[in-house]
Each structure stands twice: as structure tokens, then as C-alpha cells.
Amino acid sequence: MKWIILVLIYGILKGIRDISKKKALETCEVVETLFVYTLISFCFVIPDVKNVGGVATRDMLLTALKSFVIFVAFLFSFYAIEKMSLGIYGIVDLSRMAFSLILGVFMLGETLGVNQYVGIAFVAIGMILLKYKPGFLSNKRANEDTSSTSANEDTSSTSANVDISSTSKNGVKSLINIDKKETTSGLIVFLAFASAFLNGISGIMDKILTRTMSSAQLQFWYMLFMLVYYGIYVLITKTKIHWKKLLTNPYVWVISVLFIIADRCLFIANADPASRVTVMTLIKQVCVVVTIIGGRIIYKEKDTLYKLFCALVVVIGIAFSAL
Fold first, then answer.
1. At what angle do helices 30-45 and 250-271 cross, to 10 degrees?
2. Which candidate, 69, 60, 63, 67, places its Cα nearest to that of 96?
3. Could you give the CA distance from residue 244 to residue 312 in angstroms, rounded to a whole number?
4. Distances in Å between the alpha carbon of 74 and those of 166, 194, 313?
């Protein structure tokens, strides 16, 4: 079951890549990061140029379409991951599983066995537990947050008065920023869901394209089209590229290298006649474990043990689906 191992590697690398994206975006802007890391990634596949000829016109057009789908999906996901915690982003990103399963069954005619249904049930339960914590845990955290908020209000009210009396313009600016944050939070979640849906479409297109294209062909042309799309977007939006900052940011390089390795593993797995999009989608969810641990270690996110328990439920579902 070589393809299962390859998809598992993809899932682990995706989790590490999501953590690296958030770290990279702490000092760099979304569009410039996407453009430069895509450029670096494309440089890694240039040696394959001698093996990428002979692609049919239909496949080339489908590859261009797939690239556009991912171009939009990555824009959405980068904006979402910049604003959301890793834990929440990982939960929302799990929705791509449902999209891919539905698309795999209806578009590719794949069928699910008993093991896959059991796996889906476990993964669904894990997702529900992640999103809706048991009442006693939620109440406990709510009480802690309330007491913490009260203490903060007592100490911040004085400083707020000082700020208003000394610099009223700063006070108004803060209110505008708070209001903007509240009004855009729903949009950020929507972008994360939209990215998951588009990634589900891309997964279906991978399976179709790898029937007639090699992994080297697909990766080369896909990356080239992506680079063109981001280049056009940079020109249209007049985005300034801070080359020195980006090229010296280690996380941009980590994203680039992992992107190439992970996608090559996924394309090879898709080319295996025994591989199935529905099962592959479940296996990819191992990335959730990586993002949870990364969120705890790097960003000190809470409820790590509970999230890991939920992730264990998801992993059990993955194991069943792969049997």
C-alpha cells in the first residue's frame, strides 16, 4: 500500500506547512509571500523540464484550470490562517474531507465499503467534538475567561481613560480597528471554508489528470501556471515585493520545499490505480494532529489534550478507512 504511505507523508508535511505559513506571515504580506514561495518552488521543478513534453491540449487546459482553482484557494487560505488560530483553522480545514468525499462519489463513481463508512463516522465524531466541546468543559473555560476579563477591565479602564484624554485620535483608531476585526471575522471563516471546497475540487482534478500525465508533468505545468497567475495578480494589485525580507525568511523556504515534496507524494499516490480519492481524503486529516501540537508549542494555544483526544478519534477513523 505504497500510496497510503505517500498520502500519510503528504498529510504530515501539510500540517508542518500550515504552521510555517503562519510564522512566515508574521513578518511578510500574504500576496508577496505567495508569489515568492511559488517562484522558489517552481525553481525546484525546473530540472524536470526535459520530461514534461507531450502533454495533450485537453490535459494542459485542465491543468491551467486546476492551477487557477488552487491559486484562489491559496489566497483564501493564507488570509484565513493569518487571522485564525492554528487549532481553529485546522478544524475548519477538515471540511475539505466532506467536499472531497462527495465529489469522489458523485464525479468519479467511487464506492465506499463498510470500513470507509466506519472511518467516516469516526472522523465526523472527531470533528464534532473539536467544534462542540462538552458542556462542562465549555462552562469551565467560560468561567475562567469571565474572571480574567473582569480583572482586565479593572486594569484597562484607567489606561483607556488616560489614552482618551491624552490622545483622542488613538482612541478613535482603536475603536475602528476593533470594529473592523469584528465585522471581518465571519468573512475569514468563510474564506477558510471556501479554500477547503476548492482544495476538494483540486483533489478530484489530480485524480483525473494523473491518469494521463506523469507526476513530473503535472507538477511542472501546474507550478508554472500558478506562477503566472500570481505574477499577474501582483501586477494588477501593484503589490511591492520585499525580496530581501522574503528570501531571508526561513519559513518561506520551508513552505517552498515542503510544498514540492508533499505535492510530488500526492501526485504519485494519485497515479496509483488502487488509490481512491475518498480514502486519500481521510488519510490527509493526519495534518490536524500536527497543527494542534504546533499550535500548542509555538502559540501556546489551550485545550491541547482535549484536541489531541479528538485528533485520536480522527486518526482511528483514518485507520479504518485505510483497511
1. 60
2. 69
3. 41
4. 43, 10, 28
Q: Find all residues with CB under 8 Å of 192, minimum gap 6, and list them.
A: 76, 77, 80, 81, 84, 89, 92, 93
- Which residues have C-beta within 8 Å of that of residue 139, sequence separation ≥ 6? none
pLDDT in tens, 255-288: 999 999 998 998 888 888 888 776 787 777 778 7
Q: Give the dihedral sign, CA 227/228/233/238.
A: positive
Question: Per residue in 165-213, pLDDT tens?
Answer: 333 334 333 333 333 343 347 788 888 888 888 988 888 888 889 889 9
Picking from 220, 201, 191, the residue whose alpha carbon sits closest to that of residue 84 is 191
Q: Which cell numbers hold the place of 86?
A: 492554528
C-alpha cell at 77: 487560505
Q: pLDDT at position 95, please? A: 66
Calculate the alpha carbon distances from 163 to 154, 170, 173, 179 in Å.
15, 7, 11, 18
Q: Give Cβ neighbours of residue 271 (< 8 Å, ≥ 6 apart).
A: 210, 211, 214, 215
Residue 234 contacts residue 31 (beta carbons within 8 Å): yes
User: Which is nearest to 133 in space by CA: 312, 317, 310, 316?
Assistant: 310
Amino acid of residue 86:
L
Q: Residue type at 24?
A: A
User: CA–CA separation, 201 vs 222, rounded Å?
Assistant: 15
The pLDDT confidence band at residue 29, using thresholds 50, 70 and 90, is very high
